[in-house]
Amino acid sequence: MSRIATRFVALQERSRKALIPYITAGDPHLDVTLALMHDMVKAGADLLELGVPFSDPMADGPVIQQACERALKHGVSLRDVLGLVRRFRRDDQDTPVVLMGYLNPIEAIGYETLAKEASEAGVDGLLTVDLPPEESREFLAALRPYAIDPIFLLAPNSEAARTQRICELASGFVYYVSLKGVTGSKSLDIPAVAEKLQQIRQHTRLPLGVGFGIRDAQTAAAVAQVADAVIVGSTLVSILAEHGSQPELARHKVSELLAQMRQAIDQST
Amino acid sequence: MSNSLNAIPAASSITDWNAFPDASGHFGPYGGCFVAETLMQPLEELRNAYARYLQDPDFLAELDDDLRHYVGRPSPLYHAKRLSRELGGAQIYFKREDLNHTGAHKVNNTIGQALLAKRMGKTRIIAETGAGQHGVATATVAARLGLECVVYMGADDIQRQAPNVYRMKLLGATVVPVTSGSRTLKDALNEAMRDWVTHVDHTFYIIGTVAGPHPYPAMVRDFQAIIGREARAQCLELTGRLPDALIACVGGGSNAIGLFHPFLADREVALYGVEAAGEGIETGRHSAPLCAGRPGVLHGNRTYLMEDANGQIIETHSISAGLDYPGVGPEHAWLKDTARANYVAVTDTQAMAAFHHITRTEGIIPALESSHALAYAMELAPTLRPEQIIIANLSGRGDKDINTVAQREGITL
């Protein structure tokens, strides 16, 4: 069983909903990202999602675009992110780490090589935003020998047949994009999310995570009532954007917000 | 990268070029549909609508009528006699897309997509633009059909193409400056995609080139192929034979594929796509992914890209905003690998020289983009015999570029 599956089983036994923070690796600096990863686990994160910087993040709003630009300014590459995960694994062998990014940096390394190196580094899942299942046959074949889960997205407009197909290919968990838009968008319609999750559950027993548009503890708690995992990204990245020059303060603020979310989620479920 | 790259067939073994792309949008290993999940359903909707209206006599009649009476087609095939005589080689003909309404080939495609948008019940049009030609062509058809229009344009391009920005505004479009990334065409495309994913229910995204996710490369090609269909018939009528060579500039590659496609089965017709070598391929400051890039995935399709060793897209350079793009339509990648077409590159300096020369010799001010094709035509013609024929696509007129040219030459207008 993969580290992600193991983690979700353990969470379900304790009736605990997963909190999954996202930050862009290398923003403001790889060393700060490493410290933040441990901080976030302490503050109540169950899985970690690391953004791999890309020059053309088409599915991301301005907050994560700018985080990518900041990281790329000092040349953070996919291989650097693998190195970061390797360093994280020296002190944490249990918390699953998912890399979220775009296909081209993976193509530059090659599917087989990337799968092998990611597995050796201790990566547990790969979410490749611009790789829909239709184009993923060779990628999935490359992941198969390793314990890496391909994480797929489902959207509000994914129809039943697609949902079925994606659920068949996915492992680890399924990431439901709560709204039509880019990361960091504003409004979130909880009843609509709940209804869609119910439909998705007819196709899979995998845990369902919800992301896009979760900005505060209250929304996190509301989403936790209907989903298995709450994914929080842009709101954390904006803290780093604001306080990137004072890493200690940024770390404190990220931990503080995550702890609030953790508490709100636990109280509501 | 997939192993299927090893299995590129030779052009001579391909008997039906219309079989590409396949049902899932692939030209061999290139093309495809690499987008986030939220765009999969609207792309499916677009594919279905396009397949349906491509067979619809009513739609095709309306398109044909607009191309004739609104765009002014057919565009002439003009024999550049003075230029040909002076070069002493092949006879050079210009396909005069610069004479279309709005001054470039872009309108062939925007008319087609806007009519499609209307029939699909979409009320809002978005587009990306580099030189502003596609933005103007989109704003034009949106004005005529009464559709809301938003055009994304790199902040740097807005600076260098001010007249086109004002034209779009006159036509009622909202021009949104894009300040992310390299502030040029690729970033405008990213931003348009972000808009589309957010307003997907009522918005139609008119992509201006033969790139993007399936069905765009095929759909835009089909709308632009009128260039090559006309040129083929005109050449036969004027000269009684097919041309020996076709030349067109390649940024995303829509005017080139439009000219080339109806000739793909005519193996005796050589095809030359001309990329922007900018300050020179060896300087790294260019926009020539086919000549100096490698395959990767960007903007929804697999194609040749300008990227660094880590797979990050790098900044491109060309004097012409319309060629300043790090990717290229996937069908060009396919034509390159099958060796059906040849891809070469022309520097800023060579394009500028051709711009002046054609202006003075033929009394036609070509767009800087088209000047790249003309520069190569001037290079190729003397190597051919006087009874041979070259058709160069004069894809747009150069009025929009006079500020750039003047500035480069230290002249204040």
Characterise this structure.
The complex is a heterodimer of chains A (269) and B (413). With 269 residues, chain A is an alpha/beta fold. Helix content of chain A is 51%, strand content 13%. Chain A is built from twelve helices and nine strands. The longest helix of chain A has 22 residues, at 247-268. Chain A starts with a helix and ends with a helix. Chain B is α/β, with parallel strands linked by helices. In chain B, the strands form three sheets. In chain B, strands 3-4-14-9-10-13 form a six-stranded mixed beta sheet, sandwiched between helices. In chain B, strands 1-2-12-11 form a four-stranded antiparallel beta sheet. Chain B has a four-stranded parallel beta sheet with strand order 7-6-5-8, sandwiched between helices. Chain B is globular and about 55 Å long. At the A-B interface, helix 3, helix 5 and strand 6 of A face strand 2, helix 1, helix 8 and strand 11 of B.
Brief rundown of the structure:
Chain A has helices spanning 3-13, 30-42, 62-73, 78-91, 103-109, 111-121, 137-143, 160-169, 190-201, 217-224, 234-243, 247-268; strands at 18-24, 48-51, 97-101, 125-128, 149-150, 153-154, 174-177, 208-211, 229-232.
Task: Describe the secondary-structure layout.
The complex is a heterodimer of chains A (269) and B (413).
Chain A: H1 3-13, E1 18-24, H2 30-42, E2 48-51, H3 62-73, H4 78-91, E3 97-101, H5 103-109, H6 111-121, E4 125-128, H7 137-143, E5 149-150, E6 153-154, H8 160-169, E7 174-177, H9 190-201, E8 208-211, H10 217-224, E9 229-232, H11 234-243, H12 247-268
Helix pairs in contact in A: 2-4, 2-12, 3-11, 4-6, 6-7, 10-12, 11-12
Chain B: E1 26-27, E2 30-34, H1 40-53, H2 57-71, E3 77-79, H3 81-87, E4 91-96, H4 106-119, E5 124-129, H5 133-145, E6 148-154, H6 155-160, H7 162-170, E7 174-178, H8 185-198, E8 203-205, H9 216-224, H10 226-239, E9 245-249, H11 254-260, E10 270-278, H12 289-292, E11 294-298, E12 300-305, H13 330-337, E13 341-347, H14 348-362, H15 368-380, E14 389-394, H16 402-408
Parallel strand pairs in B: 4-14, 5-6, 5-8, 6-7, 9-10, 9-14, 10-13
Antiparallel strand pairs in B: 1-2, 2-12, 3-4, 11-12
Helix pairs in contact in B: 2-4, 4-5, 4-9, 5-7, 9-11, 10-11, 14-15
